[in-house]
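Quick question, first post here. What does this chain look like in 3D?
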Amino acid sequence: MDKNTLIAIVVIFLLVLVFQFIFLRPKIEERTQQQAQELVEEQPQVREEEEEREALTRRAEREELAVPAEEAVVRTLSVETKHYSIQLSTAGASIVSLQLKDYLDQDGRPVELVEYDEDDIRPFEVHFDRLRNVPFGDRTTYYVETLSPTAYRFWRDFEDSKGKIFRFSKTYLFQDDEYMFDLQVQVEPLETAEELYLNWDNIAYTLVWGPI
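> Answer (accepted):
Ran it through. Tokens below.
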């Protein structure tokens, strides 16, 4: 093999290498990047479609929940004990009046412990978040179940921060011979036994005594 032939082979080899680095590799990298970009663009779309299907499923499940046929209505319930008279509203399952029979004001009437304006927070309203300068708490109209003449259970279904349905209930238990009464709060998942995400600004809910 003469010198010129050897030089020609080396030159051709170098040209092939240069062609690969300058032309072929950028095209391969560009094609790879394009495929990766298409995959990234497809993922949000897939997630959106999955979320939409889950939302439709949750909506269908919620429509099948066993709730009273009639809508919950705003009404006031009255309870009388030896020491006080109390009124409960289905709006927020809250206390709207609590009068002490053994203590009278200057006009000779039972002392009223609950005095509020319409926009004030009412006793034992719930607020699903941190309490800041909120005008009032939860005024959702609750369903009510009479357990006895001095015991009532209020309940309503809500969604957690991930769309799972749960039942929030408040049960008031009054005793005829005592000033104190019990308030039992229950959170019950309705769809599955999975953990509920009751976390709004690091607070599940706040039960308040108002006005504050």
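The longest helix spans residues 3-63.
The chain has one helix and ten strands.
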